[in-house]
TrEMBL record:
Source organism (scientific name): Thermosipho ferrireducens
Stored PANTHER family: RIBOSOMAL PROTEIN S9, SMALL RIBOSOMAL SUBUNIT PROTEIN US9M
The UniProt record lists the keyword Ribonucleoprotein: yes
TM region(s), chain numbering: none
SUPFAM superfamilies: Ribosomal protein S5 domain 2-like
Keyword rRNA-binding included in the entry's annotation: no
Entry similarity comment: Belongs to the universal ribosomal protein uS9 family.
GO CC, any one term: ribosome
The protein's name in its UniProt record: Small ribosomal subunit protein uS9
UniProtKB keywords: Ribonucleoprotein, Ribosomal protein
Length: 132
């Protein structure tokens, strides 16, 4: 892929590989073309969340995006795409780091789902106690 800027994003159990190329805002997610990212995420809040790095640096609609995303749900995937876009923008122009960092867009959210323990219903939820 010639002249692409690449960034990997992770959130919860989702992984997104984001390729940015200068263009007019075309979006391809998992080999399927969409008019915008909302076509894939189907939620305007998640779309705004994912596109925040481009908005912060004022480059909305200036890049064609090729995104490969897998794992988790749409919420985690939008967070992964967000981090991937931010990291790809750093490859495009390292001077954007100050703007992105002050908005917290380069920080990987470390929160993961706690595993279920045996004898419990969920990670911490115990079965209902009965006296008799």
């Amino acid at each position: 892929m010639a002249n692409y800027y690449y960034g990997t994003g992770r959130r919860k159990t989702s992984v997104a590989r984001v390729y940015l190329k200068e263009g007019n805002g075309k979006v391809i997610v998992n080999d399927k073309e969409y008019e915008d990212l909302n076509g894939y995420l189907n939620n305007s809040v998640w779309t705004l969340h994912a596109m925040e790095p481009l908005k912060v640096v004022g480059l909305e609609g200036k890049f064609d995006m090729v995104i490969r995303v897998s794992g988790g749900g749409k919420s985690g995937q939008s967070g992964a795409i967000r981090l991937g876009i931010a990291r790809a923008l750093l490859q495009y122009d390292a001077e954007l780091k100050v703007k992105l960092k002050e908005k917290g867009l380069l920080t990987r959210d470390p929160r993961m789902v706690e595993r279920k323990k045996y004898g419990l219903r969920k990670a911490r939820r115990a079965p209902q106690f009965s006296k008799r």
